[in-house]
Amino acid sequence: MVPLIFSWPVRWWVAVFPIEEILRKGSFVADEIEVYVTQGQSVSGDLKRTKITRAVESQYFGLSVRTIKDGRIGNSSSSNPGDWEKCLKASVASGKLATPQLWKGLPGPVPLDSRPIAYDPALIPEKNVLVDLLKGMIDGAASHPVEVTSGGAAISVQTLTLANSNGVYYTRPQGHVSASIETIRGNSTGYEFGNSYTLDLDPVSIGERAGFLAAASSGGVDISSGPCDVVLSPIAFAQLIGAVLIPALSGRNVHAGRSKLAHSMGLQVIDPELSVFDDPFLENGLSSTRWDAEGVLTRQISYIRHGILESFSYDLKTAYRYGHESTGSAVRTGHGGAPAIGNHNIVVEGPRRDIMDEKAVYVQDVVGAHTANPLSGDFSVELTNPFHISGGEYEKPVRKAMMSGNVFEMLGNTAGLGNDNRVIGSLVVPSIRLNKQHIIGI
User: Fold this and answer.
1) pLDDT for 139-182, tens place per residue?
2) What is the DSSP letter of 247?
3) Which of 149, 273, 331, 385 has the greatest count of CB atoms below 10 A from its CB?
């Protein structure tokens, strides 16, 4: 194994960051001002075959300043703490170019439960723990006749702070652990990953699953085109609904005419046995929080209850524009991103059963979900690691196949949810069984 190379940035901000000073100076040039700061440290490493080829420790900083003046919203960000004055000026300048809109103000402070959610104070980005994750995945993959092609792991902890000129000053810690590995046998590959807010990942099982998928997929058989019962793994299920259903629940898309569900409030839109909701207090959720990216208190949102559409998601900007209230759904991407409508922990629930028992085609992953039409719901994807299954067993691999259909129609007539549950980004979903999906043999 090659020696590890750990490096730290030469320069790091060690002083207390002047959030109050930004708010004070901003009050002279804007009606309201909001400051969002991310500070953290991480350790990450990569695999090239079974060698650890890169391992880096780093500290990072992100600043986002948002100003509101006469209904014009400006935003600017920086990764340099010393540039906060430039960042403030840039935010004001960008606001002058923005189109004014109805604005009812940033939120004020309210009492909060100070206990962190989905956070492990014992999590520390340490290089020896990172190496254990990487070695564990290699050991797991070695239980199958495969070769490791690549992989990686990362551990990070950070503090998120939101303050505004109305008196909000919220802060919370956040941790994240991730690990992934890819294996190959002949022309067949296998990929698996894990994410958590604590060190409860089992790297050996991650590697073992990746090795199994590559080994078991070797020597696949052809499949005839036509209708077929399908079991989507949580990964494949999350990919399809993440590309179509979740965007359709965004208030911004609804009012912009980009949601198929725009005129379906109170109507049945999916199988009556399914419910979809956002739970920001989920103990094992990766995005659990008591306040959103704008300081609005979060709450559980029932989007779809027993198949009936009940709600859409809103941030402040969209809510004010269209006469609604924020649902506490604002999120930020990256260390300095502006707030936008998102979700915290989308959960899909319904009756559970052993959906692997009866004959079907099992789909581990799909390629091309991002090309699905988010308005109509139509999709056509290539299947990764598909298998014929029966009696809860993987019987034989399918060589190559595609699947096409419509996500809304697919969700309208399901055949049960699996007994598993998996956290995939901001989605918490099980596997799902679908009746008579259109499979295309390649």
Assistant:
1) 999 999 999 999 999 999 999 999 999 999 999 999 999 999 99
2) H
3) 385
Mark whether 324 and 432 lie in a shared domain: yes
Q: Which residues contact 270 (CB under 8 A, 6 or more apart)?
A: 245, 276, 304, 307, 408, 411, 412
Domain final residue, candidates 153, 180, 205: 205
Domain range for 173: 19-205
Helix H or strand E segment including 423: strand 422-424
Q: Are residues 193 and 269 in the same domain?
A: no
User: Reading across the β-sheet that carries 147-164, which strands appear in turn?
Assistant: 72-78, 51-69, 32-48, 147-164, 169-185, 188-196
Choosing from 152, 178, 205, the residue where a domain stops is: 205
Alpha helices in 244-329 (DSSP H): 245-248, 251-255, 316-322
Pairing of strands 427-429, 346-349: parallel
CATH number of the domain within which 112 lies: 3.30.2290.10
Query: Same domain for 251 and 172?
Result: no
Q: How far apart are CA 256 and CA 262, in angstroms?
A: 9
Tokens matching residue 209:
């699953």
In 3D space, the residue among 316, 227, 396 whose CA is nearest the CA of residue 34 turns out to be: 316
Pairing of strands 51-69, 72-78: antiparallel
Q: Mark whether 276 and 384 lie in a shared domain.
A: yes
Rounded to whole angstroms, the Cα distance separating 25 from 98 reads: 21
| Inside any domain, residue 210 | no
How many domains does the chain contain in total? 2
Residue range 315-342, pLDDT digits in tens:
999 999 999 999 999 999 877 789 999 9
